[in-house]
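Quick start: what a row looks like.
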Amino acid sequence: MSRPAPPTTTGTAVIAALEANGVDLVFGIPGTHNLELYRGLSRSPITHVAPRHEQGAGYAADGYARATGRPGVVITTSGPGLLNAFTALGTAHADSVPLLVLSPGAPTGRERADYGWLHEVKDQRAAADAVVARSVRCGTPQAAVAAVCETFARWAVERPRPVHIEIPLDVLEAAWEDGPVPAVQPCPPPTPSPGPLAEALDLLGRARSPVVVTGGGALDAAVPLRAVAELLDAPVVTTTAGKGVFDEDHPLSVGAFVGAAGARDLLESADVLLVVGSELGDAEVPDRLAPSGRVVRVDVEIGQLDKNLRADVRLHSAARPACEALLRGLAAGRSEDRGGSGKSRAAAARQRCLAGAREHGGRWEAIQHALRSRLPADTVVVGDSSQVSYLGTAPFWRFAEPRRFLLPTGFSTLGYGLPAAMGAKLADPRRPVVALLGDGAFMFSPQELLTAAELRLGLPVVVVDNHGFGEIRQNMLDRAIAPMAVDLARPDFPALARSLGCAGVRAADEAAAAREAVEALDRDRPTLVWLEAGP
């Protein structure tokens, strides 16, 4: 096997740095100013996918990252290309998804100069900084490569969030004279300190009615977390981002109901509440919890340990090593006899939560059961900011594994579902993926059907049509506002799909939609399945 050509420009060296950090797929759109990055990609084993809009590139990278746990990478041009990706970056920031966005910037000395330079932004780096964890501008070729490598190293030890790297055009096109880019050694994740760990073990070992809450920060800790919960006989409640971290068919599972009224009594009556990898944010827990017992929190970001709920014991650690340490300590120590009450407490809370979910979103339950009963057990479901997703899939579709339900919870953006499903499918083409979303959300990114068709993805896209923005329509009615701008003109959805190189079918009911979705998995192109739901 011949070795890849050594980098010759900063752009080619940056692509080599991506390779050194294990990147195998990037999403991007070439433009006048980012061509040196594409010189590198043309020589690279990295696969490049070109969505039809930079927002779609960001969402696709997000779907890839959530499905795999590996960072997603986006390449844009300067100015409008980067700004088009901002909604996707805000989504990833809100939900702690690792995305790296590479863009050119104004040449050195011309930033913020108002020269009328092509794609000029008053302060591009500062604009990006509003929606990412860090936005850095690199003044030398070496700084650009170092910024890429530092980003991957920091993701191993801190909360994963999007990072933007801006490379001035003159730097991007400069000669690279430092030879091959070396492979990068990953940093070990933080582990719990002995003192706080001993305190946590003492509290949990003596607890008689503990409860566990898990979020998106625990996605890689499913195995030890399950063992901890079983050892404690503790009911487990998850956030939407943490859905599937704990098998939702397990008798100790309450489900993704952390903000539900039906789970509040369980959470607040626990004598010890163990919170693993969740900020307990307002998007899911609008009314702050007021537990009567002690609180133990585990988080990779130290600033999260008292956010929204003050902790009594703080374990600054990645979730997996923390859960492994708790498991070892609990297994070796003495625990209270809890009399097997955990399963009955979980069952009672689960029934209360499901009753509440049916009251608010029962109309979306049938499609969940129809699809779940027919699709393969390992199907990845990608939703959107649609009622069928957050009032339907989140409460009613039970998942046995993490990374099986992808939903933009914090930013609650529209247009996520289709491109994110495309990214999840590309992450593992052998695994079934289905997009399930409303008509209003779908119409924010229908052009990505063409991208998915070009890639020959066997992807079912189930569009449940409630004639526009149903949630906002109801919000207006609840406030005695005459509905306006919510009942939207709609295309012939199956015909639209066919015009973009996909299959398009109409389903008479939920059972028919599920049958069509199953058949779509075996096609070499996406299939839009349209289901009329009514307003």
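That is the whole record. Residues 341-361 form the longest helix (21 residues). The chain has three domains: 10-172, 194-339, 356-532.
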